[in-house]
Amino acid sequence: MPSSANAKEKSNAAGMAAVAGPRGAGMSLLLSEIAVLFRRRRTWALLLALAAIPVLIAVAVRVSSAVPPGRGPAFLDRITQNGLFVAFTAMLVSVPLFLPLTVGVVAGDTIAGEANLGTLRYLLVAPAGRVRLLLVKYAGALAFCLAAPLTVALAGAAIGAALFPVGPVTLLSGDVIQPPEAVLRLLLISAYLAVSLAGLSAIGLFLSTLTVVPVGAMAATVVLSVVSQVLDQLPQLEWLHPWLFSHYWLGFGDLLRQPVLWDSFASNAPLQAGYVAVFGALAYGRFVTKDVLS
Amino acid sequence: MNQQDMGDPRTTGGVHQRRNRAWLRWVPAVAAPAVIAAGVLVGSIPARAGDALADKTPADVLALLAGHKTHTFSGTIEQASELGLPELPATGPSSGPASDDPAASAIEMLTGEHTARVFMDGKAKARIQVVDRFAERNIIRRDNDVWFYSSKDNSTAHLTLPDHARDLPLEGPALPGTSPESATPEGSMVPPTPQDLAAKFLAAADSTTAVSVGPDVQVAGRAAYNLVLEPRTGNTLVGMISIAVDGETGMPLSVEVTARGAGEPAFRTGFTSLSLDAPDAALFNFVPPPGSPVEELQFQHPTHQAAGPGSSGYPEAHTDPDQLAAGIKDKAGSYLAGTGWETVVELPTETGAGAKLSTALAQNPLLGQAAVVVPGGRLLSSALFNVLLTDDGRVFAGMVPADRLQAASSAP
After folding, report:
1. I want to staple B251 with a disulfide (CB 3.0 to 4.6 A). Which of A233, A241, B70, B385 is the partner?
2. Residue in chain B lying closest to A250 (CA)
3. How many Å apart are CA B239 and CA B263, to the nearest integer?
4. pTM for this structure?
5. Around Cβ B69, how many Cβ atoms within 10 Å?
6. Closest CA relative to residue B289, chosen from B187, B189, B155
């Protein structure tokens, strides 16, 4: 834990304590939480690591010979003709591990990080209440869920445009869309991934209320995401698959069809909402009954 | 939350009260899964149609089905099968299951689960999209132009139907996917639609079949008659075929094939969503995407095809084991043994499907393993049909038990 973050957390807690009135407190607490989150050096490091994925892919494709069609991740062979495919490829590559990893770090840190720094009780002294603090912490994690895939998408589009020609994008259906619409689809995919990661964030939030060691909550969250994906690969557990929070993570490909196929989103959104409800309720039960000693 | 929540609960009340509260705080954690479970249970109860369909006799339902004129719709078809054949999926998120190997492609289409979106606007405009993970196979027909597109290798093929073929009753309701298969790129096979299958099974429904109407079913949110075909003979693997016939339009909405003695259907295809509105016209305007190689295909009129003995209709259609299974009844006489559901067909080995199947078995290790050595040859067995490759190179197939194939092969 960097000491500068420590100092910022303390100033965050102190700033919140100064806010008067429980109603206004929620909003300023949220803004302060998001500001602290995105000012942290660790958050920047996570986002930079995510941005490095499309850069690595683009540079590797640029310096190597043409990729034969049908090899490697989907869209990889299209990159040389159209730089925007760097973004699609990078999103596909980062979904199984990198995005859950970064989200696990942020979500696992929410409560446990404050407890570990000894700032949790300052936050609870403020007239904000535990429930509000929990909601604000979760909202902060959600903000990161939105920022993470967006970073991959924008970095991918930028590096793709820098190294390769940009032109009309061929969708999976064979139809062609113009670059502005392709960017719109990129944003849609980012939103899809943000929704997909909401359930994992809720799990991380709950795990974070269980411990004062943030690394433990982070690791447990990331391990759970890997376990879920492994279970999703086992044909013997087919009945379980629609209930795994990672089951529709790769369904964002449906947004690259013409017309857009919303089925995976329609299945994914209620599933994630269910995980948020269950683990949110668990986190509530744990957090409001917890003896905060640090 | 109110003031009591802040800070350490020990400061806010007596120990007894705190315990009470602590218990209450876990209520949401129990309630949330309970509510979700209840919601799932309620959702899984099949919805009963509010307005029940008027009772109809099997003959009425058959007439309704035969008279249906629904050629404008868009919908999603899902197919699932438990045939006991090896599944040939390409693993990994990036690769679609499309395969270069035609027999593997056909078996891949037949096994496992598939989703396809179908858009039709009249008989001459159609688009079928086979949805794979991060890949898609498209067939687009607009009047005389038929386009095939596979996203996996970004390849396009084009076929111009001659004018005399324009109104050709392509099998099913003018679905190009079932147009002369010799002309389709082998990788572009699409799963059969409920219409295709219903037409095929009804063609087989004659005096050897008992036709009845079961309790109404709900398919894709529409009330449908449940037409049940049951072979009257025990010498077939097929136990029952249920066709859901839309109560309003007479359109076949789903087809389920249950093996003899099995409880669950071995093969099911049906709409999961259906809209009878005309699809967006732009869907049928296909222009090959940039960078995609276009292969020009030659249309082969069925009757112009080198007519080998026994090839009436579409000989190449044999390569699709599904059509083989479904359409066996229609095929030519001299190669047949048995009638009706007991039909055994011998595939011509010199030219068509027999040879292809033999090569496929030799080349594809998964298929090769699936073929069991039996007296007289090798048997490719599934829940609904059997294929026997004899040691002297002949190929027999039918929706019959293996011993009947062996009997047919040893007959003079």
Report:
1. B70
2. B93
3. 10
4. 0.81
5. 10
6. B155
B249-262 pLDDT, tens digit each: 999 999 999 998 88
- Give the pLDDT of residue B200: 77
Report the candidate in B136, B382, A209 with the shortest Cα–Cα distance to residue B405. Answer: B382
pLDDT in tens, B280-291: 999 999 999 888
| Rg of chain A taking only CA atoms, in angstroms | 20
Contacts of A287 (CB under 8 A, 6+ apart): A111, A130, A134, A209
Q: What does the alpha-carbon distance between residue B246 and residue A122 come to, in Å, rounded to a whole number?
A: 65
Q: What is residue B96's predicted lDDT score, i.e. its pLDDT?
A: 36
In a domain, A161, yes or no: yes
Range(s) of the domain holding residue A187: 4-287
pLDDT digits (tens, 9 = 90+) for B85-125: 766 544 333 333 344 455 556 666 777 788 999 999 988 88
Does a structural domain hold residue A163?
Answer: yes
Region of residue B94 (phi > 0: left; psi between -120 and 50: alpha; otherwise: beta)? alpha
- The model's confidence at residue B6, banded by pLDDT at 50, 70 and 90, is very low
Inter-chain touch A174–B288, beta carbons under 8 Å: yes
- Is the CB of residue B129 less than 8 Å away from at least one CB of chain A? yes
Among residues 151-210 of chain A, which lie with CB inside 8 Å of chain B? 167-168, 170-176
Asked if residue B93 lies in contact with residue A74, where contact means CB atoms within 8 angstroms, the answer is yes
B44-71 pLDDT tens trace: 776 655 567 888 888 889 889 888 888 8
pLDDT in tens, B226-250: 999 988 888 888 889 999 999 889 9
Q: Evaluate whether residue A293 is within a structural domain.
A: no
Whether A170 and B154 lie within 8 Å, measured CB to CB: yes
Question: Residues in chain A with pLDDT < 70?
Answer: 1-25, 66-67, 69-70, 127-128, 293-294
Number of domains in chain A: 1
Residue in chain A lying closest to B272 (CA): A263
Strands (E), B82-197: 112-121, 125-132, 135-142, 145-150, 155-160
Task: Judge whether B154 is closer than 8 Å to chain A, CB to CB.
Answer: yes
Chain B CB contacts of A282 under 8 Å are: 29
Q: Which of A121, A274, A292 sits opposite B36 (nearest CB)?
A: A274
- Residue B93 contacts A where some CB pair is shorter than 8 Å: yes
Locate the chain A residue with the closest alpha carbon to B290.
A170
- The span from the CA of A41 to the CA of A23, in Å, is 30
Instruction: Give burial (CB, 10 Å; 0-12/13-18/19+) of B35.
Output: middle
Task: List the single residue in A with minimal CA-CA distance to B281.
Answer: A259
In angstroms, the CA A189 to CA B136 distance is 18
Positive/negative CA dihedral, A67, A70, A71, A77 = positive
Residue A294 maps to a domain: no
Q: What is the arithmetic mean of pLDDT over B302-321? A: 35
